[in-house]
Structure formats: C-alpha cells, structure tokens
Amino acid sequence: MGRKYDEILGVHNFRFACKEFDENRKVSEDDIKLILEVGRLSPSSFGFEPWKFLVVENEYLKEKMFSVAWGVQRQMPSLSHLIIVLARKKTDMIYNSKYIKYMMEEIQHIPKDMINPRLDRYKNFLEEDFQLLDDERSIFDWACKQTYIALGNMMTAAAELGIDSCPIEGFHREKLEALLEKQEMLDREHFGVSYMVAFGYRKEDPSRQKTRKPFNEVVEWIK
Ligand SMILES: Cc1cc2nc3c(=O)[nH]c(=O)nc-3n(C[C@H](O)[C@H](O)[C@H](O)COP(=O)(O)O)c2cc1C
After folding, report:
1. Cα of 54 to ligand 1 centre, how many Å?
2. Partners of 55 in the beta sheet?
3. Looking at the DSSP assignment, which residues form a beta bridge with residue 195?
4. What domains, with CATH codes, occur in the chain?
5. Tell me: the pLDDT tens digits for 101-131?
6. Rg (CA), the chain
7. 62-81, pLDDT tens digit by residue?
C-alpha cells in the first residue's frame, strides 16, 4: 500500500451519488469532453460499441423530463451536465445487421476473409452461448449492460478531476423514450434509453458515510 493506492482509493471515496450540485459552478467544456472521451474508449463485447451519448443542453427538454424522471428531480435544478446514454436494440445488434457490417468493415477494418468466421462466432454467441435472441429485450439488456462499463469509467474520470456525478435509473423508460422520440432525439427502431448520468460540483459534502458490506462478505478467494 503506497501513495498510489491512497490516490486510487481517494478517488473512489470522493465519488458519491450527488443529490444537489452547486448551481453556480459549471463543468468546463474540456472536462465534459474528456469524460465523454473516456466513455467512448470503454470496452465492449466484440468491440461493437453498442452506445450513444446524448448531452442534454436543451432546457425545454429538461423541464419536460422532470415528470418522467423521478430519480433526477433533486439534481435537475442544479446539475451542470446531464447525459442520457442510449443502448442499441436488436435491429442493430443482430449478426446480420447493417450496423454490425459497418462496425466490422469501416471501424474495425477486419480483413474480408476474416469477416464471415467472425460473424459465425458472433451468431453462435448470440444464439447459443448467451441465448440473446429469444426476445427483443434480452439483446437490448445485453447492450445496456455494456453501457454501464462506460458509466463506471466516466464517473471515475470525473472524480479524478474533482467533478461530482450521479447515475440515474429513476425514470419511466417508456415515457422518457416517447418524449425523446417526440423531440426527434431518439430513433426507437435503433436505440433505447439505458441510463442517465448527471455531472456538476457538489453543493455540500455527503451528509453520511458510505455504506458498504465488509470486504470479506463480498470477496471469496477460490484456492
Ligand atoms: C445504476 C444506478 C442507478 C441509480 N439511480 C439513481 C437515481 O435515479 N437517483 C439517485 O439519486 N441515485 C441513483 N443512484 C445512486 C445510488 O443510490 C448510489 O450509488 C448508492 O446508494 C451508493 O451510494 P454512493 O454512490 O454515494 O456510494 C443510482 C446508482 C446506480 C449505480
């Protein structure tokens, strides 16, 4: 245990689910871009990046969201930046979709003769290994799971910069998606809402200590 350990634990102890931000302090554009870049660099299964990050700067939309997103009502008036993270649906994540073809050819630059074997492996993974094709929801939830890796990374990067955050699942998904669709911010054929995350600077330090189960209750060493 050295200074590096203290630094790392310091960052994770600093981070807490901030309920009220200092409304006079805004996160700088460079900092928010860095946080988003960390999200973009996050790992994903097969490298298919099944996400999109919506930075909500529209006050009208925030107002409209208030009634469908109970989990962000306390933060809404004072937060600096609100990000809605979308996850891709079956239309895109299925092995024979345009999106997967685009990812493999244009983004991953997989050599032509490698594409089919890779797709076979992916098809088998979806059908057999994880059985994600039984219904629309399973594959969407699998895409959502991956977006949470970006969430962890973004909140940690923010904490490293001294920026506070709060992850938000407190919303009615159907109503929020309908609202975003109406505002032409969401194409529900391709995406659904995974979660939201608020950033800003805390108004006050947390009023209570972190509650966590003891280390030995959550860690088991298999010898
Ligand atoms: C996926 C997820 C969703 C959450 N949704 C909300 C939310 O809607 N509103 C809220 O105030 N806090 C929300 N939280 C914050 C948790 O309540 C909080 O992280 C937990 O109680 C642990 O406290 P700490 O983050 O301060 O250490 C959420 C946390 C996670 C990880």
Report:
1. 20
2. 83
3. 85
4. 19-203 (3.40.109.10)
5. 999 999 999 999 999 999 999 999 999 999 9
6. 19
7. 999 999 999 999 999 999 99
Model pLDDT, residue 73: 96
Which among 12, 141, 155, 168 is the best mutation to test ligand 1's pocket, defined by most ligand atoms within 8 Å of the CB? 168
Q: Cβ atoms within 10 A of the Cβ of 176, count?
A: 19
Residues with CB under 6 A from ligand 1: 16-17, 19, 71, 166-170, 195, 210
Give the helix/strand (H/E) hosting 187: none
Quick one: residue 162, left, alpha or beta (phi over 0 = left, psi -120 to 50 = alpha)?
left
Strands, E assignment, 15-163: 51-56, 81-88
> What are the beta bridge partners of residue 193?
86
What is the position in ligand 1's atom list of the atom closest to the CA of 148? 1
Question: Tokens representing 157?
Answer: 């990067």
For the CA of 210, the nearest atom of ligand 1: 27
Per-residue pLDDT for 1 more than 80? no
Q: How far is the CA of 108 from the centre of ligand 1 (A)?
A: 34
Across the chain, mean pLDDT equals 97
Collect all residues with Cβ–Cβ distance below 8 Å to 165 and sequence separation of at least 6.
15, 17, 18, 154, 155, 158, 159, 197, 198, 199, 200
How far, in Å, CA of 136 to CA of 93, rounded?
10
